[in-house]
Design a protein that fits this description.
12% strand, single chain, Glutaredoxin, 252 residues, alpha/beta
């Protein structure tokens, strides 16, 4: 199925063998138009209730009559203007993000470190030969659609960090304002081989990268904390000793 979300289809699309998934782009554009119409509707309702004496004026006439507004009208208009500005920024991001994009090591600084300061960036370093990496990519692709204001990226680890150990994969790095805010290194920290998309969403929400609508952690507490701690310490030690020096040029 050429429309199926698989690593193989992603590779074929990158080489131009399969066409891009236009349907997803169309759905995003339709959503943007819908939100724009909804925002315009809110503006008309706002005019009718807040600045009722001017409800029959167009925007240009309203601008000219601005001096006649009282203080309450001015405050209400400014509040609504700020709201509209936030909505517009959200719409712009929906058109810009909303998918899990592939980058290479030479794009790291531009796409990750130099991303806009108010944008969260989540990048997954992976190998396609590791099943857990494929699972994480699948989940991140779904989360990218759910949280289009967040920049979701993936990169084959060798293009960013030579000689990176397989035992440290998957590696998920969370950035904001050019700095690493959190990291999940290895199968255990990423959630285990049976990781569900809701569990990954909760992890990202805990570090502030996404605003989840989940009410509680979907994963029940793990009783054997000693085993998990040993795995985490081992993964961190291996990361620090084997790849810390070669990682610096890519993620500073």
């Amino acid at each position: 199925d050429p429309n199926e979300d698989t690593e193989w289809n992603d590779i074929l699309r990158r080489f131009g063998i399969l066409p891009p998934k236009e349907k997803e782009k169309d759905e995003i554009e339709e959503m943007v138009l819908l939100l724009q119409k909804e925002a315009e509707g809110k503006w008309l309702i706002f005019l009718s209730f807040v600045v009722k004496p001017y409800e029959r004026m167009n925007l240009e006439e309203l601008k000219e009559a601005e001096d006649d507004f009282d203080e309450a009208d001015r405050k209400a208009i400014e509040m609504y203007r700020q709201q509209r500005l936030k909505e517009w920024k959200c719409l712009q991001r929906m058109q810009k993000y909303g998918e899990l994009r592939e980058i290479s090591g030479d794009q790291y600084v531009q796409e990750v470190t130099n991303a806009p300061e108010d944008v969260w960036v989540i990048i997954h370093l992976y190998r396609s030969s590791i099943p857990m990496c494929l699972l994480v990519n699948k989940h991140l692709n779904l989360l990218a659609k759910k949280f289009p204001e967040v920049k979701f990226l993936k990169a084959i680890v060798n293009t960013c960090i030579p000689n990176y150990q397989d035992r440290c994969l998957p590696t998920i790095l969370v950035y904001k304002s050019g700095e690493i805010k959190s990291r999940f290194i290895g199968v255990s920290e990423c959630g285990g081989m049976y990781l569900k998309v809701e569990e990954l969403e909760w992890k990202l929400a805990e570090v502030g990268a996404v605003e989840t609508d989940l009410e509680e952690n979907p994963r029940k507490p793990i009783t054997n904390m000693m085993t998990r701690s040993v795995q985490n310490i081992s993964a961190h030690e291996d990361t620090n000793t084997q790849s810390s020096d070669v990682m610096k040029p890519c993620i500073t």
